[in-house]
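Table S2 (text version). Query chain:
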Amino acid sequence: MAEPTLSPDTWANVARFTLNTTPEDFPDDVLDAAALMTLDTIGITIGAGPMQAGQIARESTVALYGAGRQDLSARMMFDGRRVSLAGSAFAAATQTDNLDGHDGYNPTKGHIGVVVVPTLAALSETTPDFSGREALAAVTIGYEVAGRAGISLHNSVSDYHTSGAWNALGVVAMAARLRGMSEVQMREAMGIAEYHGPRSQMMREIANPTMLHDGSGQGALVGLSAAIMAELGFTGAPAITIEEDQVAQHWEDLGSFWQMQHQYVKPYPICRWAHASIDATRAILREHGLTHGDIAKIEVNTFHEGACLFQGMPDDTSKAQYSLPFAVATMVIHGRIGVEHISGSGLSDPLVAQVLDRITVTETAKHSDRFPMGRFADVTITTTDGRVLDSGDIHARGGPEAPMERAEVIAKFMEFATPSLGEARASAIRDAVLGLTDENAKFSDLAALIFDAP
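Corresponding structure-token output:
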């Protein structure tokens, strides 16, 4: 294999952006977006806490990634036990990844906040207190670096890899900034993280849904492990998703185009690929006042990846979160999709099963052609009295094309956080996160609220 041709200008730009910018260099609306995405992610972390995958992630971390050095240890979010720095981020990222309600970015076909927020929390345990605006600057850097690494990877390899394969580089950028690493150390850490990143194949998980989800737990673990290894002198080959000349175009707008403002928020804890189909169904139900008893059949037309989602009645929460027909049927019966619908008794809801049997899913070329930048579907419902109701082409809600209102995102956080934490603590976290934009805010104001167990 020929040696890659590197672009020194790209690396210099990434290093400058990561290590030399100040919070004042970031537009206020970018930091506002960072605060809102941080809040949204923390809500999913909290909501996922009682679920089996989150419990296993935390227990595995205690067993495998304990704190060898106190100065490199951190508590696990909403648990409180002290483990290694990398272990803390791994536990929270794995937990969050297993409730598929966290944000994402269309061009990456994946997720960033799922590692950024656990990384910020873990790093806050090993560094002197920093301002709220510095916290949001670090969050933004994590998103901007990880997002471009993801786009670079997808445009330079044949397989479709999970987010953990590339969001580890955003983790390194955050660690380099907050731990005061040198440019040389950061470059080595980027190379280590990219080399060790989980090049896991996403469509294998889509075909057989499990707790592996999007590989982001490993992305967080690898990213922070790489940072500490580089600090101790370990070396790594240049990260070609950043430095190779053929991907330089994806980094040219770093610091001028803010990917931070173009993330999508999920209205439902379901794979994003199903959302357009859910929204199309929801629109018909609302417009015509239908109930499940009015529906003879539902025909869903979607893009290839959406059509590959799990088709049957799920028997565990992983399959439920990756099932398009189950999600559509749940919307028909309940008018919403919450944690209670994708776990426990929700997995054996007889009315949902009845509706699921009336649903067919078909790949449609016009929708496939617009993926991943567009996530479109159309739905036709035939009623029991013979009407044929067509949604037309619908784009999934929550992204720049059809954004959720700020108040909706905040309400979503409260919905996911309150059952575990209670309204008082959930409200305090909400206020602390949104208050990070204030000039006098300290991250410790939030940190005091996010480590103790519910």
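Notes on Table S2: The beta strands are 73-75, 82-84, 295-302, 359-363, 376-383, 388-390, 394-395. The radius of gyration is 21 Å.
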